[in-house]
Amino acid sequence: MELGAEYVDIELKVADKFLNFLSGRKPEACKLIVSFHNYEYTPSVDELLSLVDQIQATGADIVKIATSATEIDDVSRMFQVLVHCQAKQVPIIGLVMKERGFISQVLCAKYGGYLTFASLEKGKESAPGQPTVADLINKYNIRQIGPDTKVIGIIGNPVSHSKSLTVQNQAFRSVGFNGVFLPFLSDDLVKFLKTFSSPEYVGFSCTMPHKETAVRCCDYLDPIARDIGAINTIVRRPDGKLAGYNTDYTGAISAIEDAIRASQPIDPTTSPLARRLFVVIGAGGAAKAVAYGAKEKGARVVIANRTFARAQELARLIGGTALTMAELESYHPEDGMILANATSVGMYPNVNGTPLSKEALGNYSIVFDAVFVPKETRLLREAAECGIKVVNGLEMLARLVVVQFEFFTGGMPAPQRLIRDAIMTNTQ
């Protein structure tokens, strides 16, 4: 204070002692922040508001409360406190630490928070889950976030690796859409959607493990999504109802079709998948989408999965054939087969995993992997070493992000070149 600091931050536990020590000598230009930290959990709204009163009573110029998130829903309580304090004209810094609390670091700008915290560089965080200054400004465009900013994001576990975080925010900025795209790390989709149900939360990209659960959460389902039994896109309509769509199947299938067309002359009036043997590894939401899309294009679909009963269930659903993973290793009824991995095997950080041995890959002419982090999975690397045409998950992602952008923005034309370039560059 004596050296002219504009702000001094004091813990609530010692605030009274500090103010007694000052004995009224606090410089007028200096603002006193009185802080409370809870490194274990986030208290109830009533408890948080009681803390606000307690901190104000010390003579603080600015209230600061930092709690910890055990689940992402905890953040909503802090948002309620921020809104309350804004109405009462109480300056407050309200943040929730750890990865599940990350959105509080960005959306405090929407709900009237006095300021947020960021590290100067990655690895130098002063609290768990803290973003970097560069990410706040460049990725999340925090300086433009305000009360009218629409909130969109990707719900799943994990989500921090998602390319959509950078791509969608760049796309929003390029067309002047007042929205921010955030990572929603959530283990309970039903609870998340119930908690973050206000109209400004206009849409969500839905990823593992929630794609099938999401079907039950929507008031309206696109007929294709209903048939697949899994969705990856949720849009909140003006009446508050949730609509569910599946853009996975169009992204994956069009990427595989384009790869085939680029390598051989094909009748443009029919799909290059027609009558081809199309093997899908997996039986979850992504696998359902790919299998359904291949079947719609006239392919003969085979499902292989670690849990054989689930492979049988999906095969019955689409009118295909089921195999065990052991059977798949020696499966070779014909040449020119297509393989699609729709599991998370090989995804970062488990980059050494592969769903099928290199020896078995020689039976295929095209290998597609829905995993896109890393860009080249072990499956794709080994397939390429066998001289097989490969299609990575980024090709699927570029296509589905374009469709999701138009859903999230209410029909604004997507900046397709920007989206594709952003997805394809800077990916390991």
Could you report the average pLDDT, rounded to the nearest whole number? 94
Work out the number of β strands: 16
Kindly, what is the distance between the CA atoms of the first and last residues, rounded to a whole number of angstroms? 47 Å
Assembly status: single chain
Query: What characteristic shape results from the CA principal axes?
Result: elongated
Q: Helical stretch count?
A: 17
> What structural class do helix, strand and pairing data support?
alpha/beta
Strand order of the largest sheet: 6-5-7-9-10-8
Task: Give the fraction of residues assigned to helices.
Answer: 25-40%
Poorly predicted residue ranges: none
Largest sheet: 6 strands, mixed
Overall radius of gyration: 25 Å
**Share in β-strands:** 15-25%
Domain Quinate/shikimate 5-dehydrogenase/glutamyl-tRNA reductase: 274-334
Organism: Urochloa decumbens
Protein name: Shikimate dehydrogenase
Domain Shikimate dehydrogenase substrate binding N-terminal: 154-234
